[in-house]
Amino acid sequence: MLRSEIHSGCRVGFFGIGRSNIALMQNLPLEKCLITLRSDERIDRSALPQDMRVERIFEGKEAYKSIDEDILFFSPSVKRERQELCEAKRRGVRFSSDAELFFKENARPVLAVTGSDGKSTTATLINLMLNEAGRRSRLIGNIGEPMILGLRSDAECFVTELSSFMLKYLSPRVERACITNITPNHLNWHESFEEYKKTKISLLENSEKFVVSEENACIAGAFGIISDSSTYGELKNKYPAEVYLTSEDGYILKNGERLIALSDVRRRERHNIRNLMMAIAMTDGYVGTSEIATVARNFGGLSHRCEVVLQRGGVDYIDSSIDSTPARTAQTLRSLDREVIIILGGRGKGLDFCELVPAIKRYARGALIVGENAEEINRAIDGAVPCQVISDFEDAVRRGVLLAKDVGTLLLSPASTSFDQFKNYAERGDKFKEILLKTQQFDN
User: Fold this and answer.
1) Residue 364 CA: distances (Å) to CA of 338, 392, 407
2) What residues have CB less than 8 Å from 279, skipping those under 6 apart?
3) What is the CATH number of domain 307-443?
4) How many C-beta atoms surround the C-beta of residue 168 within 10 A?
5) Mind listing the pLDDT tens digit for each residue in 183-229?
């Protein structure tokens, strides 16, 4: 076992000082180890465990210097293909991560979720359903707590959200797996869309059963349980499955039989119905109809995902800061199905913003564009909708408040990551709400 290999005098390194590596620092037996910290960015010393003794710190341009650790733990977003890292691995440096350690040491059932969009919501719904049925399920991974904490828990099973960054270096064995969808994403990190797809699909290879949607042509050819929001008879004949879920005539149907009325579902947007069906398929045989109905009736969605954060003066103010791709922003606009003033922009992922044009043209009455990629987005959608490029995020929100009075909805759906100005999408969404609450125009 990997933890047993950590001994007195062992040289242990951490590349990237994020949530998962901080948890490893706090939970591994490192008292008599020689610790090295590495990061492409400047390391925030205040984020480190207070009692942690660090021998060396390499940051910025020095991050790849003198790699001689026995074990090097990586944050998920750190790529391992750099020449210096490859040479270190050939010299015998052991590479690992929070997720890799968990899957090496865990023997309890795991239900794993990945996808381009909807994976956090789907994983949360699965966990809620299992808990409602009285199972000691624990939510870990990309959403939930760091995975090493699961090893110390009394959980009887785990629900984990796995990103493409994690799956790039993992081959986890899981009881059930699902792919919510696959659309272009993280193309500034992955080599290509094909490589990104293969990374996502790899989760299915070591799962006992898995769930996919027939809507995803790139993964419709290999599945055991299907979740779907439409009926595709020819695919069902070609790819037989144990369970088929469809949404039609006001109900979610399981193998053609009514399971739950859509009127009993709190979040009835098309993508949320799809997420719910994914969760139902993943928990098939583990939970009953009453548990499904309870969760569907009470679940109001996760923060920063098409979340109405304020309603005032006949205007809805909606935070969908999680929308970091053009495809996700287009989906949000289609789900809302109303006119909006939209705030776009941040840091791009190497994706094509022209994909936004049809949805922007149909639903947006004005676009306020901020961030590093503002000019790129403006070039892509200019002519589809009146655009304003604005240098300051707060100024964009304040202008949006004024414009939304005549439209009825102000939507933050950036189609970009937050990393140009914020720590993460949650901080960006919280800032949006903070600005709204102090904006004086509400009183006019």
Assistant:
1) 8, 21, 9
2) 122, 125, 126, 129, 295
3) 3.90.190.20
4) 19
5) 889 989 999 999 999 999 999 888 999 898 877 766 765 555 666 54
Cβ(223)–Cβ(208) below 8 Å: no
Could you tell me which CATH number the domain at 3-96 has?
3.40.50.720
Domain boundaries, the chain: 3-96, 102-298, 307-443
Give percent above pLDDT 90 in the chain: 81
Q: Which helix (H) or strand (E) holds 140?
A: strand 137-141
What is the residue-wise DSSP string for 180-206? ----S--TTTSS-HHHHHHHHHHHHHT
Rounded Cα gap, residues 301 and 125, in angstroms: 9
Enter the tokens of residue 128. 């809620």
Q: Which H helix or E strand runs over 4? A: none
Residue whose structure tokens are 């949320």: 272
- Tell me how far apart the alpha carbons of residues 24 and 73 are, in angstroms, rounded to a whole number: 9
The C-alpha angle with vertex 112 and arms to 213 and 261, in degrees rounded to 5, equals 50
User: Which of 115, 328, 334 lies closest to 216 in space, CA to CA?
Assistant: 115
**C-alpha distance from residue 23 to each of 26, 28, 47, 100, 219 (Å):** 5, 8, 11, 14, 34
* Polymer length in residues for the chain: 444
pLDDT in tens, 421-439: 999 999 999 999 999 999 8
CA distance 13 to 237: 52
Positive or negative, the CA dihedral 200, 127, 425, 42 is negative
The Cα 117–Cα 180 span in angstroms is 7
Position 26, amino acid: Q
In 3-state terms, what secondary structure has residue 359? helix
Enter the tokens of residue 56. Answer: 């060396």
Whole-number Cα distances in Å, 385 to 350, 379, 414: 23, 11, 15
CATH level 2 (architecture), domain 102-298: 3-Layer(aba) Sandwich (3.40)
pLDDT one-digit tens code per residue, 44-99 = 988 899 888 999 999 999 999 999 999 999 999 999 999 999 999 999 999 999 99
158 beta partners:
110, 138
Is pLDDT above 90 for 240? no
Q: What SS3 state is found at 326?
A: helix
Helices 289-298, 119-132: crossing angle, 10 deg rounding: 130
**Res 175: pLDDT:** 96
The whole-angstrom separation of Cα 64 and Cα 162 is 26
Instruction: Measure the CA–CA gap between 362 and 251, rounded to whole angstroms.
Output: 28
